[in-house]
Amino acid sequence: MSIIFQLSSQRKEKSEQGNRFVSALIQQNPEFLSEIINCLNSENYALLGDCVEVCTMLSEGDPALIAPYSDKVIALVQHKNTRVRWEAMHTIALLAPLIPDLVFSVWEEMEKQFFSEKSVIVRDYIVVCAGNLAKSGMQYAEKIYPFLITALSAYQTHHAKLVLEGLKKSISNLSGYLDEMSEIVEIYLQHPKPSIRKAALQLQKSIPR
Questions:
Q1: To bridge 93 with a disulfide, which of 14, 27, 112, 128 should be the other Cys (CB 3.0-4.6 Å)?
Q2: Whole domain around residue 118: which residue ranges?
Q3: What kind and span of H or E run contains 165?
């Protein structure tokens, strides 16, 4: 029997249990992955969302398994269905360290999407993707840094915590911006949200003296 029938939507489940079952099955039997990949062009949005979620789950534990199909997933980050967009963006954020050139090639579109995207979750994963890409090399960090700084204050600082975490993880590739980051940290150490203050403090500790 096809593993497609074990996906949550096909089992009429409202939870992710079926998708987690399929993800675990593929980890044990990678040959089944082709069935998921073949459905990444499905016009059934519930099924498509399940398949991309399975890609996300696999990318969390074994990103190398999904990386060869990243071009199919990245084609979905602007899909009209919100769930498909956020699962696709989550997967690409996880894969970014393995596919930096591919992500970099479409970064301008992702950056524009951040400022027009209505879904908070999709925007979150764009920020995470940016941090992971900046961590992957100085050539990427130089391009990503202006976006991260702008994203700090975007949407009433809603994404500031993730931006600060992205700056911290890519600090070794941003040596030319340390003074500016030190000044920015001082501002966010005074932020009313504890989670943002904590992220700012962690970034401050990571800045070489």
A1: 128
A2: 102-209
A3: helix 160-169
Final residue of a structural domain among 95, 115, 141: 95
Q: What is the helix (H) or strand (E) element at residue 202, kind and residue range?
A: helix 194-206
Q: What is the total residue count of the chain?
A: 209
Write the pLDDT tens digit of every residue in 26-56.
999 999 999 999 999 999 999 999 999 999 9
The CA distance from 202 to 100, in Å, is: 25
pLDDT band at residue 14 using 50, 70 and 90 as cut-offs = confident
- Taking only the tens place, the pLDDT of each residue in 122-147 is 999 999 999 999 999 999 999 999 99
pTM above 0.85, yes or no: yes
User: Using the 8-state DSSP alphabet, how is residue 81 labeled?
Assistant: S
Instruction: Show Cβ contacts of residue 109 under 8 Å, excluding neighbours closer than 6 positions.
Output: 78
Per-residue pLDDT of 153-166, as tens digits, reads: 999 999 999 999 99
Q: Are residues 77 and 135 in the same domain?
A: no
Reported as type and span, the H/E element at residue 132 is: helix 120-135
| 135 vs 113: CA distance, rounded Å | 21
Cα–Cα distance between 21 and 32 in angstroms, integer? 12
Q: Which two tokens stand for residue 104?
A: 């970099």
What pLDDT is stored for residue 16 in this prediction? 86
Q: What domain count does the chain have?
A: 2
Encoded amino acid at 200, one letter: A
87-to-97, 112, 168, 179 alpha-carbon distances in Å: 17, 18, 24, 36
